[in-house]
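Budget justification, computational time. The allocation requested in the original proposal was used primarily to generate structure tokens for proteins on the priority list. As evidence of use, we reproduce two of the resulting records. The first is shown immediately below.
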Amino acid sequence: MIRAVVCSLVLLCVCVAPARAQDPPPRIPLFVVDVQGNIARWGQDPLLADSRDIDATQLPGTGFGGQLGLHLHVFRFKAITFGIGGQVMVSRGRQTPSSELDNPPAAVTERFRSVGAQLSLNFGNGNGWSYLSGGIGRSNWSIIPDFRRSNPAAPVEPLEGDDEVLKTINYGGGARWFAKSHLAFSFDVRLYAINPGVASLAGHGGSPRTTFMVIGAGVSLK
């Protein structure tokens, strides 16, 4: 699946056409701000579940959230405009077992937060362009089952491992189409490759090395 996503992004950057025909088209602007909602596809990894002493079916698998990015386009060489910037993203999911079960497992809340820098290759012009980008940053992955509450009225207390900051590589691409002079529709498809974590429960390993996809869509401002 990851190979198919990368191939699709490369094809998008090669085939994308300018949003409006004009001669000459405007250049890609100096900066752009992205404000997007997102869907994170975490999956239900048995090794990840074991690191929190829960069953894989208790993991939400999917999270919803948002992301904010700022990108500067510093110089152009032939058809490619090079950019630098960064992105902050958050996502949250919750898996609640069916109340019809005789002995239902604990509900689990999963949160992912990441901050990272990015380098980008941009193709197109100021009316609309596609890009490929990648970078490195840090993330926090919190997976909390309800049975770790000290009492029913107390908030969920995190495991020690859920406060761990993990080195994270992100890579992907997307596009922006400016229907108005300063406002565009934009989307972003990104893969997050996360380093393994340390063990936080006796008799259980740490979280495994993981790669998952986040799809974002929203608006861009220039």
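The second record produced under the same allocation is shown here.
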Amino acid sequence: MVESVLTRLADDTSEHGAVAAPESGADADHPMRKVTRQVAFEHGWSSGRARKVADLFDGMAAEWDAPRSGLVRTAPIRDALARGGMRLDGRWLELGAGTGVGTRIMAPALASAGGSAVAVDLAMRMLRESPARVAPLVQGDASTLPFADGVFDGVAMFNMLLFPEEVDRVVSADGGQLLWINSSGDRTPIHLSPEEFLTALPGGSAGAWTARWACSGTGFWVVATRSPKSH
């Protein structure tokens, strides 16, 4: 059962991380909810859908950064770095990096511990709008990543579609980790609950991963770690 390998920690109570309701967000009928579930559970991705999603986010790139980079919205990232048990000295891949809201927090934390980050996004305009390039940027489709098997110690996804088989492929077989963040909790357009996230992973409901999660700011984070001898 997923419940046996998914542990909830106490909510974040730090100054900017104390749990708060998002000011606005998506409901169950939001079109990206359907896309998210189809991609995670039904292999619902195609070149046509990729073009539509790239065009959608390219069109929002110029206004994307400011409303999403506040301390409360980004609290789950900082809390995961502090309490998630992440391998900060490792090599991390950030998928759906956008304008670098998460990258600007995560990359320096990794670097200070001896780690590194590579940021990927499907929408080129998103990458071009990144105001501070603190990590190498790669334009690419997360369903077919241009990286070798097991080359990363961790894969981070902030409000990002989940491609289960591909993240499973590129993350290390030796304790590889996945970071999943929904910055507006269940009001995030691209949303999977902690239980759904873990279930979608290859072997996730059979003990192949253990995970911890917590609420912080307006959202939540999940850090899943591959169990020994599960890959």
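A brief technical remark on that second record: Residues 47-64 form the longest helix (18 residues).
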